[in-house]
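Subgroup meeting minutes
Present: P.N., E.W., G.H.
Scribe: E.W.

1. P.N. recapped why we're keeping a running log of single-chain structure predictions: easier to compare across weeks, and new members can see raw inputs and outputs side by side.
2. G.H. added today's entry (191 aa).
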Amino acid sequence: FEHGGDRRAALKLCEERYADGPTGAADLNDVQTLTDVGLARRLAIAGKNTIAFQRDQNRWLSYTGSHWEADSGLGAESIGKQISDELWQELHTVEPVERRTSRPLISFLKASASQRIIKAAVGLARSEKLLISHSGEFDAHHFLLNVQNGTLDLNQRILRPHLASDKITHLAAVMYDPEAECPLWQQFVLD
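Output recorded in log:
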């Protein structure tokens, strides 16, 4: 024992070792992470800025590349499947001796591709800090207008690329054209 049988030393060692929880993101080289929780944490890391769970609305959102939209968790499930594929690809990083003799490792890899485990990881990921959001965080920038070719900042009158961090859930069905003329609007303003 690293703590020499001293209970206080053992507790201190546990606090240091598991400061971020007993398991981190799923890692084939760390058996403690090969759990549903480890998969959920890896899903949260992989999904940062592409999926979000709105706690107050009890719903998943996915970023489309231009705006956020409700998706019933399909984006999170898709990331869960990608993680399963990545874990199989990472198998070559495990020591060859352990790879041949580790039935639990192979069992975990097989299970990580099952619908039951992917749904469990998605369910647990709903409480991961990286993914938690609230409806008040979305559409909070009243002077940003999301259009087909970018996000128009109405204060600065510039068009910039779409950003997930803007947390916009709407997309106008128009392209911004700074050279466009608007004779009806100008006539209305003059009258």
